[in-house]
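re: ur question from yesterday

yeah so i grabbed the chain u mentioned. its 536 aa long if i counted rite. heres the sequnce exactly as i have it in my notes:
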Amino acid sequence: MRFRNLAAGFVAGTVAFGLTPPPAATAAAEPATLIVGLRHGTAPAAALDRIEPITTTALSEAEAVAIEVPAREAAAATRTLLADPGVAYVEPDHVAQAAAIRPNDPGYAGQWGIAMTRVNEAWSATRGSAAVTIAVIDTGVSRLPDLAPRMLPGYDFVNDDADATDDNGHGTMAAGVIAAGGNNRVGVAGVCWYCRILPVKVLGKGGSGSYSDIAEGIRYAADRGADVLNLSLGGGDDSQLLRDAVAYATGKGALVVAAAGNQGSPKPHYPAAIPAVVAVGGVNPSGARYPWSNYGADWVDLTAPGCNPAQNLAGVVSQYCGTSSATPFVTGVAGLLAATSPVPTSAEVRSALLAGAVKGRVDALGGLAKLPVTGDTSRPAVVFGATPTIGRGVVTVTASAADQRGVSKVQLYAGSRLIGTDTVPPYAFRWQTAPRTGTMSLELRAVDRAGNVAATRRTVRVDNTAPAIKIAKRGRHVTARATDSSGIAKLELLVNGKVVARHAGYLRQFRVPRTNRSVQVRGYDKAGNWRVVRAA
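ran it thru and got these structure tokens back, copy pasting raw so excuse formatting
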């Protein structure tokens, strides 16, 4: 069974951004690209004769081919290929992205907590999964367009019916912090874009509810396989009924997350203070505790951004503040961790959340790096960053790499020579190209914590040779012609050591002033090399 659910606490927000969500665009399904690894000595045709790919591309320096198939046929094509004894493996052509992802949701500009907790960097490795279910045990959840595609049928324990629609707004905003769709030009970007939401209504229109309804809601969510339970609620009294419900949920494999409360007090708040629950406090953009957040090192497990934009019942993005807001933030991070492969247990997710925290504050990238790597056979993704196509002297090469369980190191090779190793993002290397001139193959290798390796290559032209320049002088005119394998960027005429004329090109006739003691022409190639020639 997959791991289970989380919870949070709330201070009402009043600042509205007034954003009108545009309709979500529907894109046509693009072809799926599969990488087909071939056993040594196997010809591509022998392995592919049973399917009809749109395109087939042999990968140089690797016993593999890249094929495109209609997206709807990818699973069937994978099964067919794996049945061929000549095929070693089949995997998607994974895409690596820049270490920090910035979605286009209109409310994202106000989501300061995403970068603070490195969620935007963790998104390069995972943005959640429909296989992860998060129960929002609250005032219900309304089916806003940004949430509806991932919402499951739920239950209302206040009115004892199957309609868990929100009539307060608190639960809907909590769900938005957790799982609002990302990069869809609507509302905000939730932490776990693809996680599913199970709405469980235990609080009424006024925002309050009985411990008995909350306990029933916890058991209901656990019975329906929720991986994480989010409880953005709580009270000042301990309860055996709640303790038993939490024990039942954790026994079913769920993770329970709850709000520490908003009294600015060290007094325990329940169910957050139950030891099996992850208790969450709220911090501001500087990382300091909000004055209203409850605290206590003996019972508060994590802190998280305490003010997060979210859509209200009208679909307008408003500030949502309190430990009720910090809790779904942690829940969303737990969902990201739960979506990794191999699937972690709830205990492993809890441990990774706590061990990966920075000064007690949840950290998504740190949490991913603390998940166990046993059974991890997925290779990381790696791509080149800013790299010139023509280089000279010392060239800086940057890279981005991502892995669900963490990248151990990234290495740069030029030909077969190791240029450097970097273990901390952003990955960057200084490559001394001199005195070489010619085409050079660069390779980036990323190694994840389990030792899986991925590589990508790029060809770069290295030019450390100055251009050749020919001069012809006739009277007061000097004609200069420059040549270079990289192309000529410009020519300059120097009279008495000073530049008096420039030309963007390889051929130019310059007029020389009468008053001169020396005349020179300087030519630059497109790599930046230059040469000075004295006019005869």
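noticed a couple things. The longest helix spans residues 323-338. also The CA atoms of residues 55 and 248 lie 52 Å apart.
anyway ttyl
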